Hints:
By secondary structure, the protein is an alpha+beta fold. The chain is 28% helix and 30% strand. Helix 6 (158-172) packs across helix 7.
Amino acid sequence: MAAMTQTSLGSTLVITNPAARGGRAALGEREVLEFLQKNPSSTTSYEAYETQVPGDAARIAATAQGRDTVLVVGGDGCVHDAVNGLMHIPEDLRPALGVVPTGTGNDFARSLGMTLNNTGAALRDIFQGAVRTVDLGVIDAESPMGPTYFMETLSFGLDAAIALDASRRHNERAGRGDSNTFASSGLSIFSEKHDGWPFMATLIAGIGGAAAEAAGEMVNGSEMIFAVQVGPTYGGGFKIAPDAMPTDGLLDVCWSAPIPSTVKRLALFGLARFGHHKGSDSLEFRKVQRLEISFPEEEPPCQVDGEPLSGNTHIIECAPNALKVIVPPSCPW
């Protein structure tokens, strides 16, 4: 889709998680609403809602049919919910998504190139930016419960356990965590002895012809991390999939094989913070359009955009060009 520079957000729905980053998102919301009030040409109309519990942003965003923009003031969890709400709206009536990142991890906003935790700068990014389409990941599209979409990250294993532990610690500290919480949880959890989770997966690249797509690549073993990425980072900037591109129609997969020693595990964790882990013989990398994965013995920890997900078997696909988003001039792609 051709990029369109923003002069007005049109009819806009503002969704805020006021608890994000220890309540700093509430300040961000006030700054956003003050800006919209002082600059009436920035929208044709707007309404603002605050979330109270997980899932509220999805419910609210799903009501935005026919609006031009949904503007989320919060972190990855609120954005994740809003994305899943937006995907209930028919494509031709689906608003564009704008993000004012005020959370702890902000990995999706980081992938877009947005200024983090600075409301004024983020608003400049938006109004100097353009609308583009990005890919989403979709989990279990045929499930009776309906699909779950993710805009940045899905992982199984120790890295998921770290993300969920970091979220728990963040909540226990009333939101006073930061991206170092992920690193702290990682050092603790990666230091523990673990034999991994046996898995079987079929990876389909989506290129190379129908026969190659039908056959796929069969992989199995016992993994400690299995990450599926739309964008390159998780955990507040850990570049687990440094080559991931939200516009290439593919998901980037990284998994551990064989199980590394504790010392090597900690070294890889440190290298992954800056994306320097790709040369390791303990890791495998692929770009895929679809994968099917099962854990026959034990359900591993699983996180999707930082939120918990359950189940032993999953079908995961890339949904190309699924969502319109506002990206800043500094967008890296």
